[in-house]
Fold:
Amino acid sequence: MEATAVKLYSLEYKDAKTYLVTLLFVTGNIVFPQLCHLANLGPVLLPIYFFTLIAAYKYGWKAGVLTALLSPVANSLLFGMPLAAALPAIMSKSLLLAGFAGFAAYYFKKVSVLILLGVVLFSQIVGTLIEWAMVKDFFLAVQDFRLGLPGMAFQILGGFLMIKLILKK
Structure:
């Protein structure tokens, strides 16, 4: 899966398209986690991050940040998951993912599995350190690495395919 040039955007907060794109990706980040939780795969697939990665990589860090902030809050308000106590850690990781994905897309101007691997791993490592500082419990902070490696792999491979094949425009 070689690096591929794709059409990438850098949407601005003043553009209506930014909010339409964000709404679509937040909806994905609401529906996908619910499907994963129904199949008892929520903690394994880390579904709350999937569409944040795609939004930030394809449409820029601003669309990614909006998706990263709104998705966990909407899920928590609508379904009680994630728990309110977990929101700061999840939103931190989600914001890091949006920032790193937006930067990587801007810098490399192409998508590859290796680039997405770096984005996901870097955001998870830094996010885990932040979560550890917040909760003061290393075992809890590394939960995404203990349980979520399949989810990270899904973000990388699924994100690559979504960005490359489905979102060619």
User: Anything to note?
Assistant: The radius of gyration is 15 Å.
